[in-house]
Specification:
Alpha/beta knot; Trp Operon Repressor, Chain A; five-stranded parallel β-sheet; alpha/beta; binds 6-chloroguanine
Length: 254
């Protein structure tokens, strides 16, 4: 996969080159990340990238010309025929999700534009960008950290990046539930024991326990995720029982 990032702060992306998964992704040649400074696509002496909003108001906006020229330059050099997602990182975007990560991980080329200041000229959104992504309902100073979050989650889904011993199928969110609790040695630590079933060697029982724990955890922390997963009848009953137990607890007179 080739990833191009347009930013006013290229140095923020230096950490991608010398950390964990990324080093592996980059060294293996599976992911090729190119960082471009938007300022390099200006033509004036002072390399101006922003300007005042028409109609007045606080803050500055990113000008359209350097962004259009940077994206066009990248696309023309790489493969003018291919349709490449041009992604703007902005708090106004569609909330990012594991399913969006899976969809984007199937592309051979992605372009990310990191928004800054108070925003970007609307024509960038209308005539250049193919989708807008937000990483959550809070405001960051710029799109750079968001771009790194999105790039990390996409890269780890590319076959080979995580190594063969790891498979992303069991990750939280990948089947619509949070991940079940996990334990490693020792079997007892400070008097806290690992659940008996995990030591039993009974794989069917273990799988059942894990599924149950994943459901309970999701119900407690992220009940809105539950509808999205496909549950069998036994699991539906488990949810009803758990919800009933919660209701009984809430209404009990102490
Ligand atoms: Cl993508 N950008 C900015 N500036 N703030 C955000 C965001 C993106 N996602 C959540 N907050």
């Amino acid at each position: 996969m080739r990833i191009d990032v347009l930013t006013l702060f290229p140095r923020m992306f230096e950490m991608l080159n010398d950390t964990g998964i990324f080093q592996r992704a980059i060294n293996s040649g599976l992911v090729n990340i190119n960082i471009h400074n938007i300022r390099d696509y200006t033509h004036d002496k002072h390399h101006v990238v922003d300007d005042y909003p028409y109609g007045g108001g606080a803050g500055m906006l990113l000008k359209p010309e350097p962004i259009f020229e940077a994206v066009e330059d990248i696309i023309m050099k790489v493969n003018p025929q291919e349709s490449v997602p041009i992604i703007l990182l902005t708090p106004q975007g569609i909330p990012f999700s594991q399913s969006a990560a899976r969809r984007l991980s199937k592309h051979e080329h992605l372009v990310f534009i990191c928004g800054h200041y108070e925003g970007v000229d609307e024509r960038v959104r209308q005539y250049l960008v193919s989708e807008e992504i937000s990483i959550g309902d809070y405001v960051l100073t710029g799109g750079e950290l968001a771009a790194m979050v999105v790039i990390d989650s996409i890269s780890r889904l590319i076959p080979g990046v995580l190594g063969s011993e790891y498979s992303p199928e069991n990750d939280s969110h990948s089947f619509g539930l949070l991940e079940y609790p996990q334990y490693t040695r020792p079997a007892e630590y400070r008097g806290w024991s690992v659940p008996e079933v995990l030591l039993s060697g009974n794989h069917a029982q273990i799988a059942k326990w894990r599924r149950r724990q994943a459901i309970i955890r999701t119900l407690e922390r992220r009940p809105e995720l539950i509808d999205k997963s496909s549950l069998n009848r036994e699991e539906q009953e488990l949810i009803e029982q758990t919800q009933k137990a919660e209701t009984d607890k809430d209404t009990r007179v102490e």
